[in-house]
Amino acid sequence: MTTVVNPRDFDALFVDHDSRRRAARGVGVRVTGLEKSFGDLAVLTGIDLDIRPGQFVAIVGRSGCGKSTLLRILSGLDRQTSGSLDIGSGVGDVVPRLMFQEPRLLPWARVIDNVAVGLGHDRGAIDGRARVETALAAVGLADKARAWPATLSGGQKQRVALARALVSRPRFLALDEPLGALDALTRIEMQALLERMWQAQGFTAVLVTHDVHEALTLADRVVMIEDGRIALDVPVELPRPRRRGSADLARLEAEILKHLVREEVPQPDYVI
Amino acid sequence: MTGYASLVPSLSAEPPAPAGLGPALRRLGGGAGRRLRASAVTPWLLPAALLAVWSAASASGALPDHVLPAPWAIATAARDKIVDGSLAADIAVSFRRAVSGFLLGGGIAFALGLANGLSKISERLTDTTVQMVRNIPNLSLIPLVILWFGIGEEAKLFLTALGVFFPVYINTFHGVRTVDAQLLEMGRSYGMSRFDLFRRIVLPGALPSIFVGLRYALGIMWLTLIVAETIAASSGIGHMAMEAREFLRVDVVVLAILIYAALGKLADVTVRLLERLTLAWHPAFADPRGSK
């Protein structure tokens, strides 16, 4: 597995040097009274969420709580049954970008052409090729540009998918458990990569995850969904990069897990 | 339909494992096994052995000439036919019929397969009819075709095109329908137009299945053409064989059969080459000598 570029080179590769533009990159997202049902089945029953520009929000919840449905609505793949959703100024000038749970690379396109898919309507842009190469270098896969996706590992594929999402210069990036299928080590690497990308580019990020620890490592704010509504909204005010195993992180994790895991584990009345 | 479908290598397929014989050969002969697997001569060992047995049987008199003439007798017949120019003319005629029938039937089938794969309306309108016609053995139409067209070129064109149509249609349709819906969703979310979705996702995704249809179609193309030429033709290799039968020229009959075998092999090689070129991304088709 190729190693990710060392941090200094990395920043030089991907930082947007105009810090004011970077700060203005992220957009605010406002959700009011959002509901979604499939036939008779109500999945979301009144979600109110206000995300400020550039914030990193993690959404956690049990399987089937509706967190992926919410993300699909936020990213424009599905429409809500009722309620309103405003992204940015609300005139539809911001195209949300979604990073899927699976890499979803075109098997018949080389890595570099897969990243170029992210250019969208900018495909003909003069700097298009350069942007693609920069994004690929930023995820540490410059040497794999001509490879076929079938020859990459799971982590590498997901990094190509990340490069594809970033090359479109998203102002709002939705992430649907993109690290869920990766092994523990690759996952930690990818979390660090994601955090650096977010810091460098300043987009607004919404991450859906099963993993409370991952949510706390990355997010400014953790939102828990239960029975189709927001049950918990916790700010995470810990310095970055957050160290694994720090006491503050563990305390927050225990607090959220207490809400998440309904069945109380009976205390053993004996001591080994 | 599932019969064809099962032949499409799955996209997630791992690169094909070495044949079961591989490890055994390696244990037995070490370097010899590897050479046998890698050499370009290997596929031709069996035909060469058959030829040797055939020659020996003919030379010893165990194989009478009126059952199967010796290989050299057939070579002589071939030389005579080459010298008087009739062999080249017959091959040219058969080849032209095969290609035109294939292009006509395959072209219509490909277009209809795409249309029905992409459009629900088109499928509702035509698929039932196609499936009904498909179950008629196309050679059973020969008497009708002779009544319609006599033994003219139209008869052969019609039968070949009809035979080629179904495998191409079914596999194109199946290929388009089974394109990964997740990839389509990805393409849409990245703002691809309908034409882009077709060109960059649907068509490449359907290609492995389309190739399966092509290979089936080529087999049926020869089969139909041979039968049509032996029954209703005044030129072509099939006609050459039927004429030879009347004069009890077994050597020419065998020559005709060998030519069909060679043409069939040529068609197969062509498709394999096309697959190699267009499916380089696919682990099952990747050139083992190419870069990773």
Summed up, what is this model?
With 272 residues, chain A is of the alpha/beta class. Chain A has helices spanning 7-14, 19-25, 67-74, 111-116, 128-138, 154-167, 184-201, 212-218, 247-260, and strands spanning 29-38, 41-51, 56-60, 82-87, 97-99, 172-176, 204-208, 221-226, 229-235.
Architecture overview:
The complex is a heterodimer of chains A (272) and B (292). Chain A has 9 helices and 9 strands. Chain A has helices at 7-14, 19-25, 67-74, 111-116, 128-138, 154-167, 184-201, 212-218, 247-260; strands at 29-38, 41-51, 56-60, 82-87, 97-99, 172-176, 204-208, 221-226, 229-235. Chain A has a 6-stranded mixed β-sheet with strand order 5-6-7-3-8-9, sandwiched between helices. Chain B has one domain (72-278): MetI-like (MetI-like fold), CATH 1.10.3720.10. Chain B has helices at 2-5, 21-29, 31-38, 45-60, 71-83, 86-118, 120-134, 142-149, 153-177, 181-189, 194-231, 237-246, 250-278. In chain B, helix 6 crosses helix 7 (120-134). The A-B interface holds A 75-77, 95, 97-98, 100, 102, 104, 106-110, 117-118, 120-121, 147-151, 164, 168 and B 11, 182-183, 185-187, 189-192, 200-201, 204-205, 207, 279-283, 286, 292.
Please supply descriptive tags for the structure shown above.
heterodimer, A: 272 residues, alpha/beta, Rossmann fold, 3-stranded antiparallel sheet, 9 strands, globular, B: 292 residues, MetI-like fold, 0% strand
What overall form of chain A do the CA principal axes indicate? Answer: globular
What overall form of chain B do the CA principal axes indicate?
flat
Main beta-sheet annotation of chain A:
6 strands, mixed
Task: State the end-to-end CA separation of chain A.
Answer: 43 Å
The strand line-up of the biggest sheet of chain A is 5-6-7-3-8-9
User: How many strands in all of chain B?
Assistant: 0
Global structural class of chain A:
alpha/beta
In CATH terms, what is the fold-level topology of the domain at 7-96 and 170-260 in chain A? Rossmann fold
**Can you identify the CATH superfamily of the domain at 7-96 and 170-260 in chain A?**
P-loop containing nucleotide triphosphate hydrolases
Oligomerization category of the chains in this entry: heterodimer
- Strand percentage of chain A lies at 15-25%
C-alpha Rg of chain B (nearest Å): 23 Å
What is the overall pLDDT average of chain A?
85
CATH class category of the domain at 7-96 and 170-260 in chain A: Alpha Beta
Percent of residues of chain A in helical segments? 25-40%
Residue fraction in strands of chain B:
under 5%
